[in-house]
Amino acid sequence: MPQSATKPFIDVLSGQRQSIPPMWMMRQAGRYLPEYREVRAKAGGFLDLCFNPELAAEVTLQPIRRFGFDAAIIFSDILVIPHALGRSVRFEVGEGPRLDPLDDPAKVATLAARADFVKLKPVFEALKLVRAALDPKTALIGFCGAPWTVATYMVAGQGTPDQAPARMMAYRHPEAFSKIVDVLVESSIQYLLLQLEAGANALQIFDTWAGVLPPAEFARWSVEPTRRIVEGVRAKVPDAKIIGFPRGAGAQLPAYVEATGVNAVSIDWTAEPGFIRERVQSKVAVQGNLDPLVLITGGAALDRAVDDVLANFAQGRFIFNLGHGIQPETPIVHVEQMIRRVRG
Ligand code: CP3
């Protein structure tokens, strides 16, 4: 029996619907868990935690032990790639990431062409530790940010409400902006391949800021670089299972799926169910899309929202997840309530 036949999550990505949808949560290792906060406090900085293989493996496994999810996602961050490219990346408590802005062509000219993957060795070590500790039925997900989303942080040096600095730079200096994207495409391909080698069973490409782009820019900066990454990974690992998450892509999801060749798309909570079933789930597996705010709310509203997600998508190839990451203030009992409702 092929190994994947023992993992419901991988089976869905391979095209086989499961009667009980496999489930996990974006940001499932995180501040809503007391055991995470404890490890986080003793690790020092956020990147120190990402680059400590034992501790990163421990926090990756915490939500699996507590909730028995069908997939673990390696504890790391999309901004480890700029770090490996030699950019300064810091995480200030309560403020999110801070990078040295890469906001004009002269600065882009100094950007390294290649990432130094020696710097990311602890991530690969953590993947090995997690894969060895996981039940064979539980999948391990590796990930990277999509070039567009990673570039938005590299250009602005931080998160902004609508990532205007990167959008402006892409209009004003398309050649310099392309160079950033090209470097990210190449390093992401290598990074994902190294994660597969270290034990990842599937990959997710996070394009958190896809939804701020007009259609033509979306095609150029979100879809095309993602397509190149999928192609580059599959050139070495033809059956690599890849999930795309172009958050906010809305009506452009069918074009994204068609062009990129992903095995599944993760959809946010604004997606229109009939449209998704007809135009997206008919082609690939769908993952999502409970509103993280209803998970904070709990009660009857949560039950109703979980039932809606299942009614909308569980007749097809489906992985139950949130529409974006779980929020730190989410009560753990609500996560338990959601799991009971899904697994019935
Ligand atoms: O459990 C998991 O999902 C795996 C770990 C993971 C993290 N970041 C850990 C993290 C993953 C998959 C990410 C991806 C990521 N990182 C994205 C794409 C997905 C998304 O949520 O939109 C983005 C845009 C980033 C960049 C990033 N990292 C931001 C904007 C922030 C600050 C916001 C925040 O929540 O504090 C981070 C920090 C971060 N990455 C935390 C965690 C658990 C919180 C920091 C902490 O614990 O101190």
Which kinds of small molecule does this entry bind, naming each only once? Answer: coproporphyrinogen III
Task: Report the strand count.
Answer: 9
Structural class: alpha/beta
Helix content: 40-55%
The tally of helices reads 16
Quick one: biggest sheet? 7 strands, parallel
Low-confidence stretches: 1-5
- Domains (count): 1
CATH class: Alpha Beta
In CATH terms, what is the fold-level topology? TIM Barrel
Pfam family, one: URO-D
Subcellular location: Cytoplasm
Subunit structure: Homodimer.
Keywords: Cytoplasm, Decarboxylase, Lyase, Porphyrin biosynthesis
Give the SSE layout:
Blueprint: H1 8-13, H2 34-43, H3 46-50, H4 53-67, E1 71-73, H5 80-84, E2 89-92, E3 96-99, H6 105-109, H7 121-133, E4 139-145, H8 147-156, H9 164-172, H10 174-197, E5 202-207, H11 215-236, E6 242-246, H12 253-260, E7 264-266, H13 273-281, E8 285-290, H14 292-297, H15 299-313, E9 318-322, H16 332-343
Parallel strand pairs: 1-4, 4-5, 5-6, 6-7, 7-8, 8-9
Antiparallel strand pairs: 2-3
Helix pairs in contact: 2-4, 4-7, 8-9, 8-10, 9-10, 10-11, 11-12, 15-16
The structure holds coproporphyrinogen III.
